[in-house]
User: What shape does this take?
Amino acid sequence: MKILLIHGLSRTPLSLLGLEWYLQEAGWKTEQFGYMAVAETFDRIVERLRISLHKLSSQGSYGIVAHSLGGLLTRAALGLSSIELPKHIVMLGTPNQPPRLAPHAWRLPPFRWWTGKCGLNLTNPNFFASLPGIESAYTIVAGTGGPRGFWSPFGDELNDGIVALSETRLSHRDRIVQLPVMHTFMMNDSRVHKTVSQAFDLKD
Assistant: This one.
């Protein structure tokens, strides 16, 4: 089974090299999907991802590891047409619910310029309501290393510094894997590596 890795907003495939090498050492075949939100619309990225998934599915069974926005791109692409579903999807810090920090970030011109339609979508509850669910088996990994307390925008709620634990939930039935990591670099943590590998070991 091949595993497709999809990076998050404002990142590149380089951000997933450590995880990719770990999975390769564990015996998995891997492939990466890259995009640039500053140069492409959300819909254009999703269409390219749909084509990649269709090609990947024609080669045999596959899985997906998606960081942050990569999980939303995955949901949108799988819902576009009849594609052979992945055996398992692992979402790392994906905001499956509207993230409370997005509207604040959108007020900053550099964020608006760099993230484009992808960033705007994160501020829109209607966008989240329009996303299809996931029919494949999946694992959600949420970071809990973010700041909490009076000065934190998350109050006392567990978070990874960017996304709250509750915002990663896709269904009330989800059993979320919680790890004391931060959002931006969670994919580099050895505990995340092991969690991802174990998720696919169980489904292989």
